[in-house]
Fold these 2 entries.
Entry 1:
Amino acid sequence: MVPTHTIRVFGDPVLKRPAAPVTEIDGALATLVDAMYDTMYDAPGVGLAAPQVGVQKRFFVYDVGDGPAVLINPEVVEATGEWTYEEGCLSLPGLAFEVVRPKVVTVRGLDLDGNDVVVQGDELLGRVFLHEIDHLDGVLMLDRLERDERKRAMRLLREQGMGAPTPAGRRHAL
Ligand code: NI
């Protein structure tokens, strides 16, 4: 059993900083990835980026129902179409907002063996890819909202305070 990490929430400066590329894929990274799977399932969420556990490296883990996977140094190859979805984020506990993003997203990166991988995600999986890559760039879901929605989100964040319990029945958190 690998100890889980505390998920950093809005207000933590680590969430606003761009992460650095992974230069070494080793046992330490594999151990960290295992811990991040547990942290993601515990939350529960369908995606978790390294900066969300305080690690400023470019990788994220995800599982939209097909089993756990990791993508290291990910890049968007292609993003097409448009899909609106009520998106949540583990670093913005209790908040969910409709965000418009591309529908079909192809990403490339490395797996834990250092092999090149290309993965295409439709709807929720595509959204996870874009949301987590945003985290690696220091961008939060809040930054993707329209001005009025963003103001409403900031007000909700102020009112609930940090570490508020997450309401049941919310949508997937990424
Ligand atoms: Ni998130």
Entry 2:
Amino acid sequence: MKNISTYNFQGKRALIRVDFNVPLDKETLKVTDDTRIKAAVPTIKKVLEGGGSVILMSHLGRPNNEPEKKFSLENIISKIEENLGQSVGFVSDCISDEAFEKSSSLQSGHVLLLENLRFHEGEKKGSREMAEKLARHGDVYINDAFGTAHRAHASTAVIADFFPEEKMFGFLIQKEIESVDKVLKSNKKPLTAIVGGAKVSSKISIITNLLDKVDNLIIGGGMAFTFVKAQNGKVGDSLVEEDYIDTAKQILKDAEAKGVNLLIPIDSIIADEFSNEANTNQVEIDQIDFGWMGLDIGTRSIELFKKTIMDSQLILWNGPMGVFEMPKFQKGTKEIALAVAIATDKGAFSLVGGGDSVAAVNEFNLADRVSHVSTGGGAMLEYLEGKTLPGIAAILS
Ligand code: AMP
């Protein structure tokens, strides 16, 4: 494996797997959010400034293994050009003769974008034949698509076999790996993980993996009610996964055995319907009557959680504390986001990973007050679960 920071790109064609799966306006097919394009710029510029040329490959959306205009990467060329400040060539099939001609004659300093990889079924199937063809485009392979690193697709993992020496991570993946490792592999203490969101079932592997690493584990959101019920609390009509009550009991036991300080909410903002117009009240978390459901953590829980967060050196946050999409139930998530930001100001390292907590820090304008906001939803979750990501393993092997 090579390192992008020290690699000499002079005269080399760098084949970069980027994640340009950006949202497009349904009518105009124009890019509505270019965050992912911006994020890839440092890696692309590094190659160009080092005297190399760049061949970009990505997927976009979920096409049905054949070309479709609404999923064409042609729709995003102007946004890439705008972000790079230079023109970008395009080929309408990623493994056609025309594509090979264009990439083989690409001059240093130039950029070529290949059409959507998922127009070929070999991409998602992880076809070796497709990977071999794609590999012909470059002298060196860079994977900078963290969002798809948990997939063993042709362009994200299999292709690395064809670059036994000349393969590396881009800056984006490097930063994601460094950030998680900083939280989960460092000796700094205390380490606090905040896990929220709707369901225990979708977070169980993360919690299990974290129990061996954290000092404090804060549980919030809808999933907290399965834990409250596991302790014989009255949860009314709150979200509970009956099938996971035993799992919650086991987690409570394991936390105690491992010396993890597991915090669940002590009070809740309850509502008489799942709506921002609902009547609300604040009660003890284990005293919720039928006809009511807990949709946010209460003020005493906020204070309890904040105190632990403020005293932490390392913080990992995944999942909201309540139904933060509704203004009436966003206070808990907002206050926790703020506490993470303040702890970061005081010197803690904080990582926010996974879809909804990322949306929350963005909504509360706190994204630049935490140390790292992960771009890869599913990939980050699998990484936190302790799984080996094929896209990362392929570069490291
Ligand atoms: P997840 O994708 O598992 O992280 O869950 C995020 C979702 O959990 C968000 O859409 C929240 O609205 C939802 N959520 C958080 N707290 C609750 C709650 N107390 N009851 C129901 N849904 C919740």
